[in-house]
Amino acid sequence: MTTGDAARTQLRRGVLEHCVLALLQSGERYGYDLVSELSGAGLLASEGTLYPLLSRLRRDELVESAWRESPSGPPRRYYALTDSGRAALDSFRHSWAQFAGSVDQLLQKGA
Amino acid sequence: MTTHTDLHPLARSYLDRLADAARVLPPEDARELVADITDHLAQALPVTAGEAEARTALDRLGTPQELVTAAGGPVPTPAGRARTSYGWLALAMLVGAELLFVIWFVAVPMWLAGLVLLSLSAWSAREKLLGLLVLGTGFPVVLLTTAYASFAAYECTGGAQETVVQADGTATTTTLDATCSSLGAVPPAWLQAVFIALALAYLALQAWTVWRLSRQR
């Protein structure tokens, strides 16, 4: 693994949970839909690892889930943000803006 | 929820290995992980998908061990990763013992080593059982079949003599046609055909099992 790959893995690990919350802010979505979008954005190294993360978010009451009929095919588990999830996302959004600003500043200083 | 039978064969095999690896998790977490991945595969991997497409979908999913680690299972140790190579060695030992059965002092240790390595391999419990029933039986089956065939041939070689004492006291001895004891009786042609068909089916099943087990990640 190159240094770049290792850094990307660490960054992904740090932000993935809040990216999931961000994807749910506009409404409920099912697991495979979340996986496809995160994977397409290059935020998931192994697609399957999102499901344990979703389970943890549910245990921490940041999201809730329910099995529901889907327009096509078998029933799917849909995930939605809870009030705590929404609050956690707001808090992260604030931290991220500060964090990204600080890192950008340092990177530009060194360039 | 999706049932197991609606899935691509490679997805079913993956789920077997996942269920096996997930046994280190609390039962509720293991059930949930397998249910989520089952539904993911039902959507990501159509039953009619080609093999290359299926393998790509499974590669993107991650190995069962990675998923179990992400779900809070123990991080795999180098010893755990080495278990994958035990499988290859187990196949080589079991097939080798069957091919070299006449050199019993080589074949017996190979066979025993193959059985031990099979139990230590990273395959799922179902795959280990398949390996045991189809490949683990290879050496004893070949040995017993050969032993029986040699014994039957030996029993058939001798002719029997019959001595009849006539009423006047003279005895005449006649040699009967070569007869076989019940053990050595030559089976009828149809039975021989059945034996050959069974032997060929068994060998084909063995070849399929080697192919199937050697393709698991």
UniProtKB/TrEMBL annotation, chain A:
InterPro entries: Metal_resp_DNA-bind_regulator, Tscrpt_reg_PadR_N, WH-like_DNA-bd_sf, WH_DNA-bd_sf
Gene3D superfamilies reported in the protein's UniProt record: Winged helix-like DNA-binding domain superfamily/Winged helix DNA-binding domain
Domain (Transcription regulator PadR N-terminal) ranges: 20-90
SUPFAM superfamilies reported in the protein's UniProt record: Winged helix' DNA-binding domain
Domain of life of the organism encoding this protein: Bacteria
Name of the featured protein: PadR family transcriptional regulator
Species annotation: Nocardioides flavus (ex Wang et al. 2016)
TrEMBL record, chain B:
Membrane-spanning residues: 86-117, 129-151, 189-211
Keywords associated with the record: Membrane, Transmembrane, Transmembrane helix
UniProt entry tagged with the keyword Transmembrane: yes
Pfam families for the chain: HAAS
Name the UniProt record assigns to this protein: DUF1700 domain-containing protein
Top-level taxonomy: Bacteria, Bacillati, Actinomycetota, Actinomycetes, Propionibacteriales
